[in-house]
Amino acid sequence: MSPLLALGLLLAGLCSVHCLPENVVVKDQHRRARVDDHTLTSSNTDFAFSLYKQLALKNPNKNVIFSPLSVSIALAFLSLGARGSTLTEILEGLKFNLTEIQETEIHQGFQHLLQALNRPSNQLQLSVGNAMFVRDQLKLLDKFIEDAHVLYSSEAFPTNFGDPEAAKSLINDYVKNKTQGKIEELFKVLSPRTVLVLVNYIYFKARWKIPFDPKHTEQAEFHVSKNETVEVPMMALGLETPYFRDEELGCTLVELTYTSNDSALFILPDEGKMQDLEAKLIPETLTRWRNSLKPSKIHELYLPKFSIKSNYELIDILSQLGIEKIFADADLSGITGTGDLVVTQVVHGAALDVDEEGTEGAAATGISIERTVLRTTVRFDRPFLIAVVLKDTQSIIFLGKVTNPSQA
Ligand SMILES: *[C@@H]1O[C@H](CO)[C@@H](O)[C@H](O)[C@H]1NC(C)=O
Ligand SMILES: *[C@@H]1O[C@H](CO)[C@@H](O)[C@H](O)[C@H]1NC(C)=O
Ligand SMILES: *[C@@H]1O[C@H](CO)[C@@H](O)[C@H](O)[C@H]1NC(C)=O
Ligand SMILES: *[C@@H]1O[C@H](CO)[C@@H](O)[C@H](O)[C@H]1NC(C)=O
């Protein structure tokens, strides 16, 4: 076996069924809204691959796992409060083409998506949600509160950030609870100057339609690199399932289906071909794969059982993807009506377990926002007066006018 697949895809792959909600749209808006759902899905996929490439680049030879959907939703949620070029940057960074889709359609798209993802199913545990933790004295605009609630189903919790340890526990415990204990410490630190934290969480648990038999799981070699081999529990199964041998990109694909009909796509590049394949990860490649996967008899499928986790701070990576104003020169005036808010952290945690029974995954994204310290600037760049005054006697010992500092 060569090095394992692009794991980041797993959670993206879950989109196959759930990112295209069928029945969530009402009456005559039907056709338009379906188009929007499709645009949303392709933008989210584009963003997923772009983010994957940055994370893989920053974490060479490490496992990569994240939920692109969680990051997309959290940033779209934040964009509710962004204005002007700060807003454009977030939406374009999320790969929306603003000549083709309007801001309100994007938010409606996410609203539909959240409704579709949270529809109860007895074949699948899936929950996706948003929350905001608000400093007691922070006065949010009614419009922001309403949009957060209606479009992003966000709960709001008053929070005393003056006690940062307690605030951190409140947020981390909330996320831990919503992710069934899988994301334990989303925020490692939180500044006492924080005024608002936005959170998205995702929890997913599904069973394979055709499970692996634990009796057939055996220790086997996994080739981390040409040089390095480790022993892993290797599951084994014979089954008929969608399969594609991609000669063009030099990789083999196997899709495993859950009882809910969602699926995980496993992509195995030929030896030494991981980087070439990563470079080709674009939405068109995924579409080509989807059209090429055909049910085939696989006599022996060997897949390691694994459990991986990650923790990322995304400021640098989002800046690479063109989302930078939020961190320095932000216009987040849609949140409070004032122009003094700035994003100070974007943290993401994810965990994914794959075993004989199925898959359990969780992820969360947290965005912390602070007030910028108002900077007072006075620039003496034109003629000015000077008086030197002795403190005790208030005597003026020098008085002058500077009209040209370069003259003697
Ligand atoms: C956005 O869409 C317009 C119209 O469909 C197209 O001409 C343009 O190239 C697109 N821009 C990007 C960056 O894809
Ligand atoms: C999450 O919170 C609910 C309600 O407070 C509680 O009933 C549940 O047991 C908690 N779950 C976990 C995994 O902590
Ligand atoms: C193999 O490992 C050795 C020492 O650990 C290292 O010097 C060498 O560059 C490695 N070769 C390859 C192809 O990675
Ligand atoms: C999954 O797909 C199969 C075949 O199309 C169908 O019979 C079954 O009802 C579907 N299951 C669910 C949970 O949607």
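^ 2-acetamido-2-deoxy-beta-D-glucopyranose complex. The domain at 214-302 is CATH 2.30.39.10 (Alpha-1-antitrypsin; domain 1). Residues 93 and 322 are 6 Å apart (CA to CA).
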